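BUG-455 | component: ligand-complex export | severity: low

The export step for iron/sulfur cluster jobs runs without errors, but we want the raw record kept on the ticket for reference. Input record follows.
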Amino acid sequence: MEPEFLDEFLANHSLPAEVEIERIRREWLALRPPYDLTARHLPLPIWARRPFTESGTEAWHHLTHEVPALDPVLPLCIYVHIPFCADRCEFCDCYSFRLLSHQQAHIEQYVDLLGQEIQLWSRLGTLSQRPVSTVHFGGGTPTCLGPEPFARLVQLLRNHFAAGSTTEWALESTVSELSPEMMACLDGLGFSRLHVGVQSLEDPVRSIIRRRAPARVVLERIREAVERGWIVSVDLIYGLPGQTLSGLLEDIRSLVTIGVDGFSLYELQVSDRNRRFIQRHRLEERDRRHNYLWAQVAAHYLLALGYRKTLFNHFAGVQDTNLYFTFPERGEDCLALGTIADGVFGDYHYQHVEYAAYSRQVPTGVPGLGGGLRRNAVENRMQPLVTALMAGRVPRRLVADPIIHPLSQRWQETQLLIPDPSNGDLLLTGSGSWFVGHMISELMHHVEALEQETG
Ligand code: SF4
């Protein structure tokens, strides 16, 4: 990459002393094609890389035969998707919507549907007896259900699956939904991990993205959760209109000071769900080289403050186990419940349909799946390396295969991976985090092409 751009960036920003500028410079100067900062994409789920090979009905048929045959003592991760939000934020690309009318009836109906789906899965062999590592509620805003329906849903899960004293109960939310009543309810239900969509603490930016609570209130609520003994992690987005790098670093400082234990850093994504916002703020014209450098600076800052990279975009303190996001590393299956949720058993992946179809299908006695597919031979062979890249640390043995060697060489030459001096493993750098989606796609194409050549 051209040094002048970086020099100008450094001249225009005063960075905290903890940020290792030389490290950022080394990674910047090492970048070369095919790694194009402006063409970055996030890691894709398997069903986004290639279409489902089976319909939802066929997928359920497979799962009803295969799940009972799986090891009954293997821990299980459970994910529940709640698609509702109090308001639909225009910048957001998540699958969620605001209920315009009959809110309570829709909420009760959705919990009923989830209850029916829970029953269907719990009848599959020994699934209901497998130890549950974590139950994670994502969305949307799961707390939108309100205390009573939420408690009913948790009880349904407890009644049908083997959640025990070591199960981590975790959820995603926003500060405006964390009323004292809801927090007391979650405490009583045994929740201990909260992931808050903070996005930015710069008040002018919060007003552009129409966040109702000012930064002062966000910090107060998060402090209260930390004081209750919760493990709290946050989402921060970079690339928002009006945002500044010094503001982003100040956000990190403030959140560290009140005891936040984990940070997920996201670049603002462009999709059909937020296209109007992107167009209004002319973000399609943005120079993503700035976003890359912001990500680098924020990541280096978090590492210098003692956080570890436990996922390509997540930085964890000592307590933050982040069990849902790391289930593939532990070789667990993921039972996903609810509209659009995607899960995996062994090497079989499945996804649910959207809300309207889910509401129609579940009452007919099926779990509302949209399709499924099995990892092919190459995907299975590469799965440990893909998981390690996502986790940010690659054991040497995973790149010892001669087939992988040319790619591993290139990743090291371009500083996407660097050796860990303590044990010789390879670490995903800031550049590697930016390009991890690209690296995984590259790996698959490379291995598939070689296998075709050799028949
Ligand atoms: S940012 Fe959070 S609250 Fe806003 S629409 Fe997206 S999921 Fe809902």
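Assignee comment: Attached the raw record above. The mean pLDDT is 94.
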